# Entry
Amino acid sequence: MRTGETRWAYIFLIPWIVGLVLFQAGPMIASAVLSFTDYDLIGSSEFVGVENYATMAADPRLARAIGNTLLYTVVHVPLACLLALGLALLLNRITGRAAGVFRTIFYLPSMTPYVAVGVLFLFLLNGQAGVLNEALAIVGIEGPQWTTDPGWMLAGVVIMSLWNLGASTIVLFAALRNVPRELTEAAMIDGAGAWQRFRHVTLPLISAALFFVVVVDTIAALQMFDQVYTMYFGTSQAQQTSGDAALFYVVYLFQQGFQFLHMGYASALAWLLFAVIAVITFIQVKVGNRLVHYEDPAA
Amino acid sequence: MTARRFFPLMLLAAASAIFLYPFLWLVFASLRPRDRTFGGQLPIPFRPQSYLDVWDAAPMLTWLLNSVVVGVAAALAVTVSSALVAFGFAYFRFPGRNLMFASVLGTMMLPAAVTLVPTYLIWNSVGLTGTQVPLWAGNLFGSAFYIFLLRQFMLGLPRYVFEAARVDGASYLTLFWRIAVPLSRPALIIAFIFELKASWFDLMKPLIYLQDTELFTLPRGLKAVVDRFYQGGDPKWEIVLAASVVTTLPLIAIFFFGQRYFLQGIATTGRR
# Structure
């Protein structure tokens, strides 16, 4: 009976076990091995030791891609999380049907395929006649060439990214809803002002959700691909006009692996990305453990 | 209405206007003639012709059908396989369970980029690059995220229902198919629609695996339209805009039908 149950458990797990070997563990090992080879898909692979990693250290385009990606992440994540928090706090101030309608509106951009988002913002951010610069002109500011000036293209990508706040807003709004009213009301009776109530009652109680949003958003930002690839890569014209001003890490990895067929180098790039994401997430978790307030289960 | 409620409402209304504006711009601009793409706000002069032209300018209908087929295959594959695995974890106690479950959680941390090249080599070695198979077949083996979601849900199902069925002589497959699956319907729908959306968004896999235009999915097709009619020597912005609307509209429709599940799914899992 007991052994039969074990056998059946493993039967249900077959898809996972096969997939783990075939599409996770196997490729991971293969990718690690490939990163020490020179392989272009046509010839045979050649062991080159740490050459790929040495090349990475001296690759100016890679340096550019890393710089762009980190700069974007550092600017995008705080802005996106603060704006999402602001929207969630506003939603929490009103109640009932209206909050649901607004929440839906904020999520709608997240249902727009990233390729379409990229296309849309090529038009909206157009330097000559785009809507953003027309709006800026009304208040007397001459807007930059967001989609063609290398100095402003990353800023344009950040602006585009802030259209996609829906999921973060929903998570934070759900967390705010779970803050017990009695606590904020008790603080109010004790004479705490709005900021104090937020800082000492609400914020600790939603800090776990906020932390989650920051970590997930950071990991996603480091892997940005679809929108920028749509806007600035894929054709020789696009690449000529935009150069590497919007070269992101995964875009570069994709180019190396599937345009130049440098499969070994692309694998090495993938492992560096993995390492960077792991280190950043580790630091965030360490810092988070100090800042995040988890409800004491013993209390 | 008190000021306490009035100000948040005003700010939310303003924010909503900003979030909705790009949609409005896209739809209205696609209904204007090309030389007025940037001229004005309303669809004046009104020119819906682009929505007829777009089907001739590019095989949009083929791409739309491809996206539906690939999306449904991907979503169905991942939902069924993840449900099987989740049931294995939720119902049974067996040696190695914690270790196996740790492997599920572990793969969630792994960026897709790490397995990108070897996965391509696998499909290449079996001669399936250039076909749509790699776009969905990897989903037959479950996905860590949905396994986790469905296991959590199934752990919440009352155990006595299963035990009663066992006493009545039901097989484990019956327990899964007749009890776990029907009772997990909300979670299964969440898995299905999230994967449908992910597949509808995906640009990377079609870029890697598809060369034949006839096999493109909508995002890959839209990228081809942009490359040809936005950047190229023959700019036809109205075609690009109409194609963007055609790519986006099905998802917006799905969202309105499955809104409840999307919102629930995000609030409980944080998936975007």
Q: What stands out?
A: Residues 181 and 200 of chain A are 14 Å apart (CA to CA). Chain A touches chain B through 98 residues (CB under 8 Å). The two ends of chain A are 42 Å apart (CA to CA).
